Amino acid sequence: MLPNQPIARAWPLLLVLLVWTWPLAAEPDLSPPQQVIERVSEGLRQVLREDRDRLANDPQYVYQVVDELLVPHVDLARSSALALGPIWREASPTQRAAFAEEFKRMLVRTYATAVDELGEWQIQFLPTPQAPDRERAIVRTRIQRGGGQPISVDYRMVQRDGRWRAYDVSIEGVSLLVNYRSTLVRLTRERGVDGMIEALARHNIERAGS
Q1: Is the confidence at residue 189, as pLDDT, over 90?
Q2: Would you say 91 and 84 are in contact if contact means Cβ atoms under 8 Å apart?
Q3: Distance between CA atoms of 195 and 17, rounded to whole angstroms?
């Protein structure tokens, strides 16, 4: 089983960001990367408003919603490569494809698990830095939960074929992909690339049955 409990605890926060995000009233029009997150949030908000009971009682429907609404806006190829770090370059095309599929399944199920933990949040878009090549950007957000301190969440995004997709998320400066990478690298050192992929596949099967 993958020891990713700290990451799992962070995903409910991430999902809330995608669901309840809105810009500050005084801000100008949203940038294209911000618009992607806003469109996703509107789709999820509608599902939560109309199908709350079904989401609570039909896990397969939750997976379907996440797969259809969120996955198309994630650069899974880039996320998979970054999650493995140097191991990605050593892996064969077959191993890369197998890992990317299992990594996607893990992300979908982790998002889906977070649905039950949604609550009331206030979220704001902050100014979005964009790289000089205009193909990369960081969508910065700040959220307020209850009476606690604001939390900073950054979405790293890349533009390919005219579309913006997220490939990493940092919560209070901590990258989720970096957290995944430490576990995946350790498993690869212990069991090899194929063994790491098998462990991830077993992890996904166990979570599917829970």
Answers
A1: yes
A2: yes
A3: 34
d(CA 170, CA 182): 15
What DSSP element (H or E) covers 163?
A: strand 163-171
Residues forming a β-bridge with 158 = 136, 165
Give the Cα separation of 200 and 12 in Å (integer).
21
Q: CA 94, 69, 204 angle in degrees (round to 5)?
A: 45
Edge-to-edge strands, sheet with 163-171 = 122-125, 136-144, 151-160, 163-171, 174-175
Is the entire prediction scored with pTM above 0.90? Answer: no
Which residue reads 């576990």 in tokens? 183
Domains along the sequence of the chain with CATH: 5-208 (3.10.450.710)
Q: Which residue has the higher pLDDT, 186 or 14?
A: 186
